[in-house]
Structure prediction request, 753 residues.
Amino acid sequence: MQRRTRVAAALTAAAGLFTVAACGGDDETSGGGGGEDGGRGDITIWYSNNEAEVAWGQQMVEAWNAENPDEQIEAQEIPAGASSEEVIGAAITAGNAPCLIFNTAPVAVPDFERQGGLVSLSSFDDGENYVEERSGDIAEQYRSPGGEYFQLPWKSNPVMIFYNKDMFAAAGLDPENPPLGTYDEFLATARTLVSSGAAPKAIWPAPTSEFFQNWFDFYPLYAAETGGTALVEDGAATFTDDAGLGVAEFWKTLYDEGLASREAYQGDSFADAQAAMAIVGPWAISVYGENVNWGAVPVPTSAGTPAEETYTFSDAKNIGLYTACENQATAWDVLKFATSEEQDGLLLEMTGQMPVRQDLPGTYPDYFSANPAYEAFGDQAARTVEVPNVPNAVAVWQTLRDAWSQSVIFGEGDVEESLQGAADEIDGLAGQS
Amino acid sequence: MTVVDTGAPPAGDAAPSPARRPARRRGILGVLGKNPAGLLFSTPYLAFVLVVFAFPLGFAVWISFHDYFFAAPGADVDRPFVGLDNYTSVLSDPDVRRSFVNIGIFLLINVPLTVLLSLVLATLLNQVVRARTFLRVAFYVPYVTASVAVVGVWLFLFSGNGLVNEVLGPLAPDPPWLINSFWAMPSIAFFVTWKQLGFYILLYLAALQNVPRELYEAAATDGAGRLRTFRSVTVPAVRPATVLVVLLATITGANLFTEPYLLTGGGGPNGASASPVLIMYQRGIEQGSPGVAAAIGVILVLLVLLVAWLQRRFVGGGES
Prediction:
């Protein structure tokens, strides 16, 4: 009896180790259909939980509900979790995802599609046309490998270099025309900032191991250096070319010389004046606007690409229509309403984030003339690169991050060898269906 | 009128024959045991164990042999049997292998340190007369405080320009503790030891209450000093508690996740502090490969069972 009790206790304790991996759901019940036959009626939506977007979401819902008493929207902020992608993934598995989620990360879309969680927008009669007319050529980056749109490109935050004008002035640099166009200029400026004591660090991107951190160090510079090449094209990694290795060497120099920190900063290093520069999108304007005397320039390239030709990472968030939705016809109409010219204008005004529309500055000239700080971002929004829409997208980015962390941030091993190893692994991951 | 219960059946009852009655009771008792009410009371916990532990355990093993991924209800997905592919993939993955080495380093530091410190501190606390409650609470507070909050304090202490390095001066490691490939895992082991110490001290305090006072009196009569008394009386007397502490510290240590996730930014530097459960999270939840994650889990459980068995064999664990 005692022996049996001990065995049972050991097995019980051991079973606890499995709970992380064993949170599956059954697939017995039926989900929603696709296309305009999905029905009409009330729907639920989730939007982001930052203050400005909540305000935008609430006014959008009120505007729709006032005009559509028989097809009401019930809205809420996306539930808290480690990340919104995990929350959405869990909701898909549980079958209780809302009809629309206004903050679907493009990197997660291939996985959500594989899970059977997303409705193809191409299945609506006007789906393809609507996406392409609103977003133009840039929409192509959001098309799935199967040729359909499972996400509506919604808003982007094209990342640029923010710099602290006061720190630059204290270092004897010209705060209005900072020398940051080429790698050499950027490195020289960084050395001046730190050696003069004007800034503890020149720039402080997160050196941590999360898969998405390369979106804010490597990827914007790679996009700029290559004129808009994605990380993976035609199922193969692209970044082991001279451009990718040049970007890696540039960052490695910053880390090796202590101009960027290998330690994670608890908080916002730019806002706390611990770093003179940051790579951020326009969402940060409202955050830094009154606290930091800032300026913004495009990310550097080896040869100094003119601003009007420089590409960057989009940091976009999109809208997904989920298969758990019963009233998909209403959801599609709401999606179009929420991305209409009027609502996009309100999004721009209320959040400072860039709707993924063709000719953004030309569509909202009054806004950009009244808010010149956003003008460069509005222009930059036309030249952005998205995360590649490939299978195993998160694993692809984690593979790159691991190699980057090892050879670039911590300087262990050869950079070229490390990135080549990551590229070989990514070729395998991206080629899987 | 007083009724005397003679134990005899009421008149007129068709009492079972003495020969048949015990036989029927044996049959019922054979199924329900001597105290059937106990089964009733234990049913909720039994159901809990089955639903929350046993089912996921079996399901995870099943997942580990399939190309499994989480899907929407009703989605037409294929999850073919892949045999040992997930295990092959896991065992050939250098990140996974490194995570097992990392957790081995962690356990080698954490478990002995936990046993030693908690036993010594519990013994001292047991002898303290003044401020006893305050001291017990002081040791217990880190255990009940959310890791996220405590991690913030440790990040402040062990960062490059943190208090610890300020005190150490030129003796401080470069790069600093949490981004140093050599020190990252030991730093986490020290943190976890400190954070969980209060719980293990409580276990030892409870065990110390049961040590007969006569043993200490006899030791004192024989002229044993404090160290000798500790070694010859306290340590053997709390041996069952030590076995429990070793087992619990090993199992909770093998489940390490929060600390590398928060303290070292997701298992850095360069994977030096990644634990198997952290890799399970990355593969299973972030990257959508539950089959691979489950295979890591199965291997982890088998290794923990092996370690527990070895501990029982060499440290002890049978009732004395």
